[in-house]
Structures
1.
Amino acid sequence: MTKLPTHPIRRKLPGVLPAEYETLRKRGIGRVTLPTGKLAWMVVKPEYARFVLSDPRFSSDKMSDDFPKMTPKSLNKLKYCAPFMINLDGPEHLELKKPVIQEFSPAGLARLLPRLRVAVEEKVDAMLGRQDKPVDLVMELAYPIAWRLQEIFLGIPMAEMRKMRDNVWHLLMQTSTEEEEKASAARLNQHAEDVLKEKAKNLGDDLMSRMIQQELDERGEVDWFKMAPLMLSNAQGIHNSTSMMITLGVLTLLSHPEERATLLAEPDRMTVAIDEMIRYFSVNDGTPMRLAVEDVRIGDTLVKAGDGLAVPTLPVNRDPSVCPYPNELNLMREMPTRHLAFGHGPHQCPANRLVPELMEIVYTTLFERAPSLALAVPESELTYKYHSIQAFGPAEMPVIW
């Protein structure tokens, strides 16, 4: 009997598609084993992926006992918190997502991007001001920019977001008894409430300020417990994936000097090239996941109610139907591709317009200020890792100029 692939399927290099995915390519869907030992369906065909991610018969409710989990019990510990937007379906999900979507509207981006441009310039200048070289671009530029993005977007200091992340990690991964869970959850919720109450004393131009003000205008008071999960979820992992795309994009431009010159001179081409990098690297390759709540046929496969599904973005975005020669990174593509790097359907990442804009600001600013930027070691000597459960990229990237 052929051994089934285990999800998540891990890659060793950013651009190399693991062979296990190709075993599922012909049918577009097949069985995989989860770390818990349970079986799930893996979807790698774009047509099927869009169907699963948009049809209400596939749920995102991670609190369900049947939801395909990476660990047996960790997500169930979120029962001590108010519902997280990403774990809800239908109207409940859309209601919580509404204020986030507004932040990424054209008007929201018009407010946000100028501030991000200033922040990027500051972080680039700080890195280039270092006298000791080489400098690790991951820790000295990519992560600082990604964290600053969250600070500006949420209006919450980085130190507090780091503490939130640590508190969530402790609850999910370092508690084993009900007593420990309750104590850890109490710390998590109390800290989140304290941060929000402090924020209420100094409202600004950011998501949490607008949400607090809206609550005060509509109800005269704020439900801190209910509001906390939106702040907590946004403080968790976006910095990992954003920083990795910044790093991989710089690495790509360093290894393609002729194309880089063209792209820096022609912003429209740079926009398409960034879209191509996002498609090609698909750094969050382990998500999303869903639970079938009814029997549904996907192609010629019957998925039964209670079955879990994984929809990894990397193999989906390397399907031949997405673009010609999908396993090639082509910075000179004429048009953006219809990829799923930001997901699809109701749970599509609302930052799908912001992240490419941020990447373009980073690349143009960095190479304008440091046209002689270069790797300090051969690219073949770089090592790679998962900086979180999802985000894959260089462990470090020493550069000189």
2.
Amino acid sequence: MNEFLRKKWEMAGLADDYIFNKVMLDYDICLEVLRRILPDLHIKKIKLPNNQQEFAVAPDAKAVRFDIYTTDEQGNHYDIEMQVADHHNIAKRIRYYQTASSMEAYDKGQPYEQADDSYVIFFCNFDPFQLGQQRYVLHKHIDEIPEQIIEDGQTDILFNVPSLRHDVDPKMQAFLDMIAQRKVEATDPLVVKLKERIAVVKRNRKWRSEYMRRSVYEMDQEMREKKIREGERKIRDGKRELLEGKRELQKGKRELQKGKREIKEGQDRLKEKEQLIQEREQKLHENQQTIIKTSILAMRELNIDETTIRKEIKEKFTLSDKKIKDYFAE
């Protein structure tokens, strides 16, 4: 573990948020970076950058901790953040940071129009919006008139550090290349200062120890979060399987009900057929009786003796002695 952390410390550059924070605490570096990000503001001086300043919008609200926070001589507020990993919440995250920063821009009793401007700046080691841009500048606009920007004093700026588009000016590109550890022009004064400052940070034993402790904590936290996510995933899978089981059970019940209905319908049809057969058999029996009686009567009218009639009827209709007796008893 110690060897792993030692190598991690040695390899860490500006893309590491801890190193970035310590480097950006340098007044001259922070001022120059802001000038390169916002050249049109002509920033002359800033307050000493504050590392990990914490704000809470409300007593019971989630606190936000800025990586680098400062203001300039015009009262503009700047929050500079390094985002190492994409947690897919960048838009909501920016909104909360901007809210916290903007709260500082309103003095009690001051008219709204005199509120200071607020800039939230994110350096992302990924494309924050997956749109292929190297720089994203966000303002509010009117949906029906997209080109109409709302001047509310809030500006969000996000840099896609890995991008190779070179859409920014050369000076800004040099800073992005430093973060991405790409080849940079060694004569750039900011590049020189950055390299010197990184070396100073790496030699600081206190910061090195703090980095190690924080790394261990972050790895433990990441492991805990991973276990929590795994547990949540298992719960979701269990719920999904339970839901699928319930659906299968409902489907089985429906099929069972359908089967019962089909059996009932089959039984009803069978009963109807049996009744029809019985009716037909009854009718045949009645017809046979009529024929037999008519035959007996006809033979009697021909003066045929009873013995011959009995014999003739018995053989012709295959009747038992009892049935023959019944016919002649009538």
